[in-house]
Amino acid sequence: MSEKVEKDEISGTQTTGHEWDGIKELDTPMPRWWLWTMYGTIIWAIGYWIVMPAWPMISSYTSGFLGYSSRGVLEEELKEANAAHAADREALLKADLNKVHDNAQLYQFAVRGGKSAFAVNCSQCHGSGAQGAPGYPNLNDDDWLWGGNVDTIYQTIRYGIRSDHEDTRVGEMPAFVTSEMLDKNQVNDAAEYVLSLSGRDTDKEAAARGQAVFKENCASCHGENAKGGRDFGAPNLTDAIWFYGGDKKTILRTISKGRHGVMPAWINRLDDVTIRELTLYVHSLGGGE
Ligand code: HEC
Ligand code: HEC
User: Which of 7, 22, 92, 168 could disulfide-link 163, Cβ–Cβ 3.0 to 4.6 Å?
Assistant: First the structure.
């Protein structure tokens, strides 16, 4: 390899002086436009470092003269949105929940807010459409444990059911076998009776014995006619809507061991506006009374 710089005859450009096996390397300069573009990007980058957040440091970063942050922009936008809704929130806070319906604009605001709060706080148990699941009641139907008017729903959401709040709703269906209140035969009879209530084929003799067991042990909560007792959160046992399940095995399990479903109290987790929105949303779902 020799190092002789010379002019290439064909292109008229200088060579670099590098030559391999008779092949010489031309020293073609970068096009002007390319060079200026590159200098431009370098200057742009330096300017950017100065005005915008750019370089990581040990515990923070260089924040730049403009002090821009995407989190700050979001906070600003949220503040604006909240300010825009402040009047509605204020009105909802003061409103009589039973009358919000008369104010279409406020009602719509509340139900929309309730829907998104439901997706965040409630859907993991009650399902995204509030359709429920075994052990978690469907909130769309008009079969209520505790009641479906606005005031009742509001109280349920605020204080929960068997929650750790002192004002919680308490409905305690005993675990009849575990606590030795009934023996297995009596529970079996009671289950046959419960099956007969929703019009299913049962062992008639057992169901007749079960009716007596029911009268003595169950009617105080579920009602003489088994149509439910809302003061105790006891479900209607005569319809086709089941909370835990209506097959015999599940019914036996419910009576023998109890269930003690827990619904958390929200009064310390959500602000009153959100609880009001949730109340109106749940009430709007179809079962509202
Ligand atoms: C951890 C699970 C869980 C979460 C989260 C939850 N719930 Fe519940 N909810 C339950 C259970 C379980 C019951 C039934 C309790 C019982 O056995 O009486 C219930 C009952 C209810 C009832 C009473 C229904 C009736 O028939 O009377 C309402 C209303 C309700 N929930 C609304 C909500 C709302 C609104 C939220 C969100 C803020 C929510 N729940 C979040 C588990 C939950
Ligand atoms: C102290 C009140 C109380 C008494 C007494 C009681 N229950 Fe219940 N029962 C409830 C409550 C509250 C529930 C709701 C379930 C829970 O605990 O989460 C329930 C739920 C049930 C369910 C589940 C229904 C479903 O939809 O899945 C069945 C079945 C049932 N009770 C049958 C009985 C029978 C049979 C007896 C008598 C042997 C009885 N209960 C006595 C309060 C009572």
Answer: 168
